[in-house]
Design goal:
The chain is α/β, with parallel strands linked by helices. It has seven helices and nine strands; from the N terminus they run ααβαβαββααβαββββ. A hairpin with a 2-residue loop joins strand 7 and strand 8. It is globular and about 45 Å long. Keywords: Cytoplasm, Methyltransferase, Nucleus, S-adenosyl-L-methionine, Transferase. One of its GO terms (molecular function) is protein-lysine N-methyltransferase activity. InterPro entries: Efm4/METTL10, Methyltranfer_dom, SAM-dependent_MTases_sf.
Length: 210
């Protein structure tokens, strides 16, 4: 991919500062990455697999925290969201307060350099964070490899990793996470037709840590 400001912390700090101001002004939590159906898809998979409601869940790059709010509404109790943007965490805390979901934990954390306490999760979820890291102008390849190492350190063996991406195909993601993870399932995403060929604009996969 071409490097992009979407891969920089400065971009996301500025974006979430704007969203924070908007939330304070009118109570709008801001954009849901990949739309509401992406959250429904994740929650349906967890329910279908009968994942226990007390399983520890980490939302990588939580943004406004809305995915964790929806998981809490579905009964999940051990929820943590991290983001390297302090403005994003401020926003997610305000959304949490408004929704009365005080048990959700939010922390400022850089997933590429996770703190020691970030470990032992049974589920890790990524909606767009790996995409953003892939666009970093400064050594994106190295950062992608570090992401996979961080994932191995925070996710328990046999834990699940659910990733939603608009930049990567299934085959490419299999290549990125081939070491230490096995694919369990590709989740259905909206299809489009162009020039007689059918494709997906979004890829959603479930991996399990070996």
């Amino acid at each position: 991919f071409s490097p992009s400001v979407l891969g920089t912390r400065e971009h996301w700090d500025a974006a979430y500062e704007r969203e924070l101001q908007t939330f304070e002004d009118i109570g709008d939590a801001g954009e849901i990455w990949f739309g509401e159906e992406s959250m429904v898809r994740i929650i349906r998979w967890l329910e279908k697999q009968k994942i226990p409601l007390d399983s520890s869940v980490l939302d990588i790059g939580t943004g406004n925290g809305v995915l964790l709010i929806e998981l809490a509404k579905s009964g999940y109790t051990d929820l943590t969201g991290i983001d390297y943007s302090p403005s994003a965490i401020q926003l997610s805390e305000k959304v949490r307060e408004k929704e009365g979901m005080s048990h959700i934990k939010f922390k400022v954390e850089d997933f590429l350099a996770p703190s020691a306490e970030l470990s032992g999760f049974e589920i890790c979820i990524d909606k767009g964070t790996f995409d953003a890291i892939s666009l970093n102008p400064d050594n994106a390849v190295g950062k992608r490899k570090q992401y996979a190492r961080s994932l191995s350190s925070v996710l328990k063996p046999e834990g699940f990793f659910l990733i939603t991406s608009c930049n990567w195909t299934k085959e490419e993601l299999l290549n990125e996470f081939g070491e230490g993870f096995e694919i369990l399932e590709e989740l259905p995403t909206p299809k489009f037709c162009f020039g007689g060929r059918i494709g997906n604009s979004v890829t959603a996969l479930v991996f399990q840590r070996k």
